[in-house]
Amino acid sequence: MKLIPADGVPLAQDLATLPSFLADGDITTLLKGHDPEAKLPEILQRGDYVLTWQNQTSFLGQLLEHGTQSHSAFNDERRYWSEHAQMLLLCLACQLVPERCFELLLVTALPVSLYDRVRRQQVKQARTRHFRFTFNGRVREVRVKCGYVAMEGQGILIHCGDESSEQAVVDLGERTTDLVAASGQRLISRLCKGFPLGVGQLVEDLQQLWQRYRRKLSVEKAHALLTAYAHHRSYPRSAIGASVLPDEAISEVIQGSLQRLARSLFSFLVGTWNVEGGSRRNPI
After folding, report:
1. Cα–Cα dist 2/95, whole Å
2. CATH of domain 22-151
């Protein structure tokens, strides 16, 4: 979530990200082992999030491993307007806005493969409402008004594109890649397509490497490893028992995963944007 304050006042933090996972939570169990008089806000650490809404308590962020029935709603198109999406939205909003009560004017997006009038309306109707819930032990109230529901990738055209030339965007996400083409700011629907391909495949390949050593790699740490690789930085230390996983093993997995991802992505690009009658080596 990127936050733009209505009054223009600079914020200490205006951007927050969150894994798409929720876990069923039990606050009583979480409090065990602490001082009997301790309250929930007193035991939570940075990155711990507990949200209770409609009598359902969920653990998010670094608390996922302390919950049960962890789920992401991947491969379920309803995740963009379901209660799962609502919980993630409220958690992100509360990370960025400290006030107990506030109004959120929301601009969001749908993948190209789901982008139609009916689903856009479902998103707007589900997100536009008044929420009263508990976040990290404190009561919060948020009035959400969902405005424009864009096509994923369209936002960069609005902010960085021009009004007349032909232009295109490749939006590579966690689970989907969206291709968006436009003439000026008018979308060319026949050239806008989505494909179930994304950074999540790289994450899964890294997690399989950890599984060989009977270890579990979180999504957050996998992203930290990928970021370090992309910026030619040292990897975060990766302990496997009494030893440390060699950097070479991590790089080998990332490089192999990237090659497979690139081949699939290239085929998708060429198949979608190849100029009729032109060389398949030269997509527009």
Report:
1. 11
2. 3.30.420.40
